[in-house]
Amino acid sequence: MTSKQSLHRRVSPAAPDCPSCGTTASDLFIGSWRLRLASRTLAACDSEINLPPRAFRVLLALLDARGDVVSRDALLDEGWPGVVVSDESLTQVISELRRAFARLGCQTKPIKTVSRAGYQLVADTVCDACKQPDGDNTEFAAGLDLEALGLCLEAKGIVARNGEAGMKNAALLTAEAARMAPGYAPAHAYKAVMQATLQLYRGDGGSTLRDAAEDANAAVRTNPRCAHAQAAMGYSLGALGRYDHAQSAYTRAIGLDPSNADIFHMAARTLFSARRYRLAATLAERAAALDPSCFYSLSLASRAAARFDHLRSQVYARRALIRVRETLRYDPEHARARGILGLSLAQLGHSDEAVEVVDDNRSCATSMQFPDVVTRCVLGLEDAAIESLKRAMDCGWRHAAWLYAEPSLAVLHKRREFRSIAARIAMA
Asked: Which of 4, 15, 110, 331 could form a disulfide with 254 if both were Cys (CB 3.0 to 4.6 A apart)?
């Protein structure tokens, strides 16, 4: 049954990319349109339209279908629960919704009639009035220092391949970028993210999470319109456990750059650690859609969806496995891919292959051991999972919130060894 909660499977939180919209963090969007649940209105830029209750419920049902065709009978059940009406009533509501979208600038038909099947919400409809100009990269152009940008991109590449294992080198590069270009917001933003991640996953670096938050603040002060600066603020606040403030920062970041896969993934990670699984899964799925080579966002989406939709979790795991294998085909030593490979295999029931992968990864004495902890929990190997967790902690893994957010680790929560490890990590 369609609800506010199930909607998070289809749409993302809207963001204040147009001040006249009056957007709030609880709004949802369909492409460029904002759907306000509290007032049952559909909005775009400075215009909005009130939707009648039946039209609102039919639109929710179409949204929740995730682009699939919804039968006329299903839509009748949603729009007129417990009431027998003719097909003409539904036809009128569909026409009403189409007119609402048209009045808000939609140049195509957003709801498609599928002969003898029902109706389908077309995902790629665009509100021309809300389009951003092509090539709008002002957040990088403002105060641009090419050498600093180069260091940041080099750091990003190191982390993409090696995960947390390469974080120390990446942090040094971004610190140098921020030093050489103090007026360049992305440099401070990258530095903040690297510092926070270094503390959470390596437990070293000479700085604290509050230092990372201060660098994020510096990025925002330098350029409040820099999406990376707002995302760095969200990441730093999330690392400090201030999840509501973090979500607000990510909302601003996505509003400034709604096509940035890194920002969606960072937001998904933070909200996963806050145990806001539905929204985390949706944001991670969006990150994977924006970056076709990204496997770790699909893995995160799969683990989040495991809490509320097993079938959806399996779909994500299969897609992650395909991308992981493609990555390892041309880069067999890709540490991040090796960590996700075993986990994806375990989630899909390929136990023998998963065990072989995690046993191979065991020789890697890095904080990338944590995916193997999750894999062993999925396989039911609790004792081995505890040993892997000890190794991860010894290598500097310090993300206390993740211990209780990761669904598969629930099997360990009552074990004395786990409680002891969790206490030591919390005190670190």
From this structure: 15
